[in-house]
Amino acid sequence: MYKDTFITLGKIFNAAATDRDFPEYQNEVKHLKDIAENYHNYNGWFSKQFVKMQLLSLSKMLNEKDLDEFEAQYKVSKLSEKKVKIIAAGNIPLVCFHDIFCVLFSGKTCVAKFSQKDRLLPFAVMEILKTINPALKDKLIEEKEQRIDFDGIIATGSNNSSRYFDYYFSKYPHIIRRNRNSVAILTGKENKTDLEKLGADIFAYYGLGCRSISKIFVPQNYDFQDFFKNIVSFSYVINNPKYADNYDYNKAVYLMSEANLLDNNFLLLKEDNNILSSPIGVLFYERYDNLEKLSEKLLSLSDNIQCVVSNNDIKGLKTEKLGAAQNPSIFDFADGVNTMEFLQSLD
Known about the structure:
This protein starts with a helix and ends with a helix. The relative contact order is 0.13. The chain has helices at about 5-20, 25-40, 50-60, 65-75, 95-105, 120-130, 160-170, 190-205, 225-230, 240-255, 290-300, 340-345; strands at about 85, 110-115, 140, 150-155, 175, 180-185, 215-220, 260-265, 270, 280-290, 305-310. The radius of gyration is 21 Å and the shape is globular. By secondary structure, it is α/β, with parallel strands linked by helices.
C-alpha cells in the first residue's frame, strides 16, 4: 500500500542527499536540504554529513524492486481504522522512519510522538508524504500535548525508559525496544577497503546508532596497526565539540583507572569483555581463539545485539558484510521483531 508514494519519497530523499534536481518536488527537496544544513543547531550530534547520509540510505531502502517484494509479501488490500502510536527515539536523524513506513504500509493511521532531539526532520517527512499523496492527510498525525487514543504501540527508548513503557503500555498490543549494540568480527585478513568500510560502520552518526559498531572481536595475535592506518579518514569526528568532549572525558577516566588503552587521538580502543555499548569515542575489543565458540557466545547474547558484521560466513550467526551496518534494507526489522506481522495482528 502506498508503494508509489514511497518510491517518490525515495527520489526526494536522494535529490536532497546528492544535491540533484527534482523539479516536480523542488520545494520539498529544498526544505530537506535546509534542515540538513542547519540541523546541528537543533541537535549538536546531527551534522549535515550524517543527515544526508541517512537520507541517502533511506533512498536506497525505498527502491522499487524491494517495495514490490515487500508489497507482495505483506498483502494489504484495504485501509484500516486502527491507530498505531509510535514513541520515537532521537539518537540518530529520522531513526523512526521505518516504523512510520510500516504503519502506513499496513493501511493504519500513524500517531507519532517524536523525540525533542529529532522532531523537525520526521515532521517534515510526514508533511512531504501528505504533499505527495493528499489521501495521507488523516493517516499521519503528530501527537503533541493532547493524548490521542490508539490500538497498538511501538515504543523505542533506553533500558530505563523501556521499563516505564512496559508498565504504562502493558494493556495494549505493543513492541517495546530497548538498548541494543552491534559488533564486528575480524579475522586479520581484511584489506584496506574492508577496514575503511568497518570505519563507516563505527563512526557513522558518531557511534550513536543501535547499528553502530561498539565492539570488535579479533584473533589472539591481531595487530591493530593496519586497523588504525585505514580509519584515519574518519578523524573528522573529533572536530565535533560534543564528540571531542566525550573522547577527552572518557580518556581521562580510563587513564585515572590505569586502563590499558590504544589511542589514535580520535578513538580509544579498550580491551573489554562487556557486550554493552562502549562510550562515545571508545571502541571495545575482545580477542577470541575459536570462531565456533565465539558464535555460541554471541548467540547467547542475541537479545543485546542488533547486528553482527563480518566478511566471513560464521556458522550459526546471521551476519552482514563490513560497511553494511548503517544501510539496512526495508526487510531489516529492529531487534529482529517483524513490525509488519505485529501490525497485521491488530486487525
